Amino acid sequence: xxxxxxxxxxxxxxxxxxxxxxxxxxxxxxxxxxxxxxxxxxxxxxxxxxxxxxxxxxxxxxxxxxxxxxxxxxxxxxxxxxxxxxxxxxxxxxxxxxxxxxxxxxxxxxxxxxxxxxxxxxxxxxxxxxxxxxxxxxxxxxxxxxxxxxxxxxxxxxxxxxxxxxxxxxxxxxxxxxxxxxxxxxxxxxxxxxxxxxxxxxxxxxxxxxxxxxxxxxxxxxxxxxxxxxxxxxxxxxxxxxxxxxxxxxxxxxxxxxxxxxxxxxxxxxxxxxxxxxxxxxx
Length: 283
Known about the structure:
Helix 6 (about 150-160) runs parallel beside helix 7 and helix 7 (about 185-190) runs parallel beside helix 8 (about 215-230). The chain has an eight-stranded parallel β-sheet with strand order 1-2-3-4-5-6-7-8.
């Protein structure tokens, strides 16, 4: 277990009474408010000193309101120092006004346009690539959220954006439940060869069996991304409260810490704290 303050680079907060989240209608466990006080309770003994909020796929018309709402929460809890917001990057130059509005708030550090629910070809659209390339101009990173079948095209898309900093959410969502490794394993290795890509070690438990997963189910996947990205480009995230469907918060932290048992204190600090500060520019 990490016995020092950690940075959580992947928390979600939402309130269906304030904003619209169409996807929640199909997920009863999550279809209620999840707010800062709920997060504090979920963390239990884990000392989280910095948090990065990641967009929650609100109705597109509410996306700017979501960033404004989260900024208001940051005034209540100063640990909330980063926002990864939504933007319509598939509109290319048409996303400029949206990005200009978002970056009026210095807490907005990156963009996530959810790819996992789109076709495999979505990320190769020329306008989408232009929209992502534009992030360099605004000093923003991009969170890649995909299922493992998207990896091959994701590699080709990222190659066209060499000046943008990327982070792969949830290690690319491999099929952990069925213990499938290929072609995920090979494609992760290829993606890691691109120096502008980091990997967020998060969300593994919800790709495993919610009820029956064990640390041994997850460890080969954790080992592989650490082998590929190293401790300089691997970053901890919780994916709370989505991960709460399959684990309590302290159990996930303990599982990851034990998976890298034997690493140096410096490497542990990079994984759970330092890399996040650097990548999301939180200092």
